[in-house]
Amino acid sequence: MDYYNYSGGAEGSDTLFELEGEKYGVKTKAYSFYGHNTKSKNRWNLTNEQLEEGLRYVEVANKTLNRNITSISTYVKKLLCRNWYQVKNADCIYAIGEFKSDGTVDGGTGWAVQMAIDNNKPVYFFDQKKNTWYEYRQAFGNLQTDRFSEPGGFYEVSTPPLTENFAGVGTRNLNENGKRAIIELYRVNFNEP
Hints:
The protein has one domain (4-189): Rossmann fold. It is 36% helix and 20% strand. It is globular. It has an eight-stranded mixed beta sheet, with helices on both faces. It is of the alpha/beta class. The longest helix has 18 residues, at 48-65. The two termini are 20 Å apart.
C-alpha cells in the first residue's frame, strides 16, 4: 500500500510530517508557488490559474471563519490558496495547532481545516495546548452552526487512523506535544513498537 502526504512545505508541522513520513515510505507532494520559500525537496509549484481556483475555496471558508481577508497580503492569500490543494487531493486532513477562544483553529491551519469541513473531508486536529487529538463531526449538517469546539464539532479521540492519501498540515510553531503527536501518528499506524 502506498501512502501520500499532501503538504504545504512550510517549516514546523509540514516539515515534520514530510521527514517522519519518509521513514515509513510515505511520498510527499509539497504544494508551493513561485516566490514561496520552502526547503521541501518535494516541491510542486501551482500555476496562477490553480491559485485562483484555491481562492474560491478560501472565500467560502471565510464565510464561516469570518476573518478579514481583504487586509491579507497577496503572498499570504497565495499560502491560503495553496492549502486548498492539500485539502482537494487528500482523503483526510491531520492538523496540528491550537484552538482559538472562539472555538476555531488558529492561523493558516484553520483555513485548511475549514476548507476540509466545507468539502466534507474527515478532519483530525491535534491541539498542542490540550495535548489531545480531536475528530471533527458535523452536527445536523449545518456548517454555519457547526463550530470547531465541543460539542459543536470536534470530539476527543485517541491517535487516529492514517489514510493512504492524507494532508499533514499545521502550525509553524510546533511544540514538543505537536512533535510527539506526529511521530506517534506514524508509529501507531505503521505498527512500530
